[in-house]
């Protein structure tokens, strides 16, 4: 029979990669907890219009990358391409704002984008992310950046932090007109996408990865020169706090991010180690989005990191627990071995009951292959073999053996 293959752009994560995936998520979870962010578990599907209204009609995500379908009830559904829109929807729909104060959430899970698959770019990928609602001071921006930095540090991932400010929507309006004027004269040198962007959202041109577009935008007017004093002061504060925390950064005035909802601070953690898909974590402030989606005016800031890209950068997994292989010396002792294995597991030890039947030699082969630290041969007594030193000790009393293992 013909084999069925996975769908293009999707992948199976198993073996060491699955371990890396879990290690990254568990590390992030610990740090989210240290910063007292609370988990929010959201649907993988949303009404299509949520993303049109938040991510933006003219963005690549909405224009080209969304998985959409009609469900049996005729609803227009999208597999979520990102997390922020859903968190905002949930924040509004569940009236979380009504509790007052500010709120800090984190999430983890799959996102879907119909993109050209390549190293570090898939159609289903996974993100960890956090969002902070209800505060607009620079302190909250820095809190998010510092959280991401801590996660990357624990994972021993070396990155360059790039930051920029987009100012407020009002600041940006004048700038966008100037940019449009400037780029209109260079129109013939822009890529087809950017020709369209020029009309609807010229800011996107700054984000384009096509060389000719990059060249044409080099001398373009700088957003920085159009920012209000308030925005500039705010940006200076953010930089001051980052310096005080010894978080190194470089300013990149071209950094605009691929989504429409950002305001003021935007940032990316970038590596040169994994080719063109170098952004491992990215985020920023989005003070108008909650209102834009029907909630009360609520400032917010957040980030998302791609787990697959982090996986490419994690070289070493922390050493796991010692594995203890339990081997019945012959079938007569199978039941006893089963009991021994379960007793050790209840004592919080990690145990492989060697399931293979046959010669002792073939069972040892399995134990070796699994890199067991210890083997217990089960017969009328218990013989503990230390696989590193080769020493072998006989125990009559299982409890004493358990104590020995727990103390080792
Ligand atoms: P890029 O410029 O690489 O397309 P983006 O601006 O679309 O990234 P965001 O929407 O900000 O990315 O998503 C945040 C992070 O999610 C990215 O920095 C990246 O690590 C990861 N990511 C985005 N798209 C993919 C994908 N198709 N496959 C794997 N990871 C992805
Ligand atoms: Mg993208």
**CATH architecture descriptor name of the largest domain:** 2-Layer Sandwich
Q: Determine the N-to-C terminus distance.
A: 51 Å
Overall pLDDT metric = 94
| Number of structurally distinct domains | 2
CATH fold descriptor of the largest domain: BirA Bifunctional Protein, domain 2
Please give a quick description of this structure.
The protein has 408 residues and is α+β, with helices and mostly antiparallel strands. It has helices at residues 16-34, 48-54, 60-65, 84-93, 138-154, 169-184, 192-200, 211-217, 229-244, 289-292, 307-313, 334-346, 360-369, 398-407; strands spanning 38-39, 45-47, 68-70, 76-79, 103-112, 124-133, 160-165, 250-251, 263-270, 279-285, 300-306, 323-328, 350-353, 374-378, 382-386, 392-395.
Write structural notes for this entry.
The protein is α+β, with helices and mostly antiparallel strands and 408 residues long. 37% of the residues lie in helices and 21% in strands. The protein has 2 domains: 240 residues, Bira Bifunctional Protein, Domain 2 (BirA Bifunctional Protein, domain 2, 2-Layer Sandwich); 85 residues, Anticodon-binding domain (Rossmann fold), CATH 3.40.50.800. The chain has an 8-stranded mixed sheet with strand order 1-5-6-11-10-9-7-8. Strands 13-12-14-15-16 form a 5-stranded mixed sheet, with helices on both faces. α1 crosses α11. It starts with 15 loop residues before the first helix and ends with a helix. It binds adenosine-5'-triphosphate (ATP) and magnesium ion.
């Amino acid at each position: 029979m013909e084999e069925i293959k996975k769908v293009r752009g999707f992948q199976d994560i198993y073996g060491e990669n699955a371990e890396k995936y879990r290690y990254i998520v568990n590390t992030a979870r610990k740090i989210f907890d240290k910063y007292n962010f609370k988990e929010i578990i959201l649907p993988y599907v949303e009404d299509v219009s949520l993303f049109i209204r938040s991510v933006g009609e003219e963005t690549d995500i909405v224009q080209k990358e969304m998985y959409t379908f009609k469900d049996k009830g005729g609803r227009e559904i999208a597999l979520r391409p990102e997390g922020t829109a859903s968190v905002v929807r949930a924040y509004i729909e569940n009236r979380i704002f009504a509790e007052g104060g500010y709120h800090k959430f984190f999430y983890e899970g799959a996102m879907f984008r119909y993109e050209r698959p390549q190293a570090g770019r898939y159609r289903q990928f996974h993100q960890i992310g956090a969002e902070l609602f209800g505060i607009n001071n620079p302190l909250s921006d820095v809190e998010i950046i510092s959280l991401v930095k801590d996660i990357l540090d624990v994972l021993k991932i070396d990155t360059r932090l790039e930051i920029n400010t987009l100012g407020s929507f009002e600041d940006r309006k004048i700038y966008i007109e100037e940019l449009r004027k400037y780029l209109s004269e260079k129109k013939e040198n822009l890529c087809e996408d950017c020709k369209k962007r020029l009309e609807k959202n010229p800011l996107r041109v700054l984000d384009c990865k096509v060389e000719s577009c990059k060249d044409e935008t080099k001398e373009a007017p700088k957003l920085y020169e159009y920012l209000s004093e308030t925005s500039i002061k705010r940006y200076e504060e953010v930089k001051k706090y980052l310096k005080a925390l010894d978080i190194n950064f470089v300013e990149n005035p071209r950094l605009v991010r691929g989504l429409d909802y950002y305001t003021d601070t935007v940032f990316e953690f970038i590596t040169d180690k994994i080719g063109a898909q170098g952004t491992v974590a990215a985020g920023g402030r989005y003070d108008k989005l909650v209102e834009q989606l029907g909630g009360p005016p609520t400032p917010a800031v957040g980030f998302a990191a791609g787990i697959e890209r982090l996986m490419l950068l994690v070289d070493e997994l922390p050493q796991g627990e010692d594995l203890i292989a339990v081997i019945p010396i012959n079938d007569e002792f199978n039941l006893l071995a089963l009991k021994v294995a379960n007793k050790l597991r209840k004592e919080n030890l990690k145990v492989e009951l060697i399931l293979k039947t046959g010669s002792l030699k073939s069972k040892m082969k399995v134990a070796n292959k699994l890199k067991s630290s210890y083997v217990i041969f089960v017969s009328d007594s218990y013989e503990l073999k230390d696989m590193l030193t080769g020493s072998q000790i006989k125990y009559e009393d299982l409890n004493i053996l358990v104590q020995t293992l727990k103390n080792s």
